[in-house]
Design a protein that fits this description.
Helix content is 47%, strand content 16%. The protein is α/β, with parallel strands linked by helices and 432 residues long. It is globular and about 85 Å long. It has 3 domains: 2-22 and 235-366, 3-Layer(aba) Sandwich (Rossmann fold), CATH 3.40.50; 26-229, Rossmann fold, CATH 3.40.50; 398-430, no CATH class. Strands 1-11-10-9-12-13 form a 6-stranded parallel sheet, with helices on both faces. A 5-stranded parallel sheet has the order 6-5-4-7-8, with helices on both faces. A 3-stranded antiparallel sheet has the order 2-3-14, with no helix packed on it.
Length: 432
Amino acid sequence: MRLLHTTSKNFNEELADFCRDAEVPKDIVDSVSAILADVRARGDMAVANYAAKFDGAKLRSREFRVSENELANAAESVSSDDLKAIRAAHANIVAYNRRSLPEDWEDRNKHGAMVGEKHDPIRRVGLYVPGGQVPLVSTVLMTASLAKIAGCPEIAVFTPSDNPGKVAPGLLAALHFLGIKEVYRIGGVQAIASMAFGTETIPAVDKVFGPGNAYVCEAKRQVFGTVGVDSLPGPSEVMVIADQTARVDFVAADILAQAEHGSGREKVYLVATSEKIAQAIATEVDLQVSELTREEKTQNVLDQGFLTIVVENLNQAAEIANYVAPEHLELIVKEPSLKKLIKRITTAGAIMIGNHTPTALGDFTAGPSHVLPTGRTGRFFSGLRVADFMRRTSIVRYDEKSVKAGNKVVASFAAMEKLDAHGRSVDIRTKS
């Protein structure tokens, strides 16, 4: 366990260094850039080459797309309990996210002109769903459900396959349940490139959504501008702020839940109000990790990316949380402190409150999307919501009376900015 005290002389520098470890190294940046350029130039041939290289899947271009029969068969192959879980999670996700569906509006401004907004679904969206050893069935629900609520006409899903070219049945079953028919067994940087640039068999999208590993996240960063991106959700993060009321076994379990993603680039933060609490949780983590099926990968994350910080008070904890901007933030502190702490923390992707709210509930079924910003991007990005799948257009309509009311203001700005044609375009309408 790496331990820092806020009282240490170099605390700020050490925290900053730990956070910088989450930054993408140059070799990943360069590798991603080369793959993107190759797919842009060679299309399907490059996609097939990288699917074979990284996933071991020997696919011809006509095999990129998952057939509707394969989707239907997957839905029939999964257990009834799994289908019930998919339905239950979907119900909460839809109920939560329908509340954030933006509404059109119109009103009169101070000149008497009609102004307003209208919202339209993005025409074609691409959803990335991590697969491979950890097929994130929940990500299907956490992205596609929102696209459906928004009314996006075309929803294309990309997810990696295994060596024989198969996609996890649970993942396909969730897609079938949602009525998604355009699914590609393509993952990694080549999937982001296909979405951004298009290939002979894959039409480009207008905006890319979904979480991924460091390579996928970097690919999204590099294609931004060619297409839109939702945010930069990369390797998972959790921060737990714990005082003496925290259940040690609960906190340890939550730390391990995030570490078990196992890419080696995850970040786990424990912010404790005393060293005694911190040591007790560390001991419990060591006990529980041996019981996990992914013990080796989880332990690697703990060795590389687990930082414990001992604070003097919860104000310091809030400052640290705002600096780190964690993807998931658990607040397990005494009740009188909670409201003030929640108000002070302004950069977390999602906040889970109390001993009985593990991050896994948010990951799978609570309602909010689990697609959340990582790597300190929570300072300027928020978690995924329905409005991200829509475009907002402002609407303005002046008439003969209101254009005269606005003329004087425009004339002043036109003079200040030396744009006389701007001023004339309004003034001419007041003289007819």
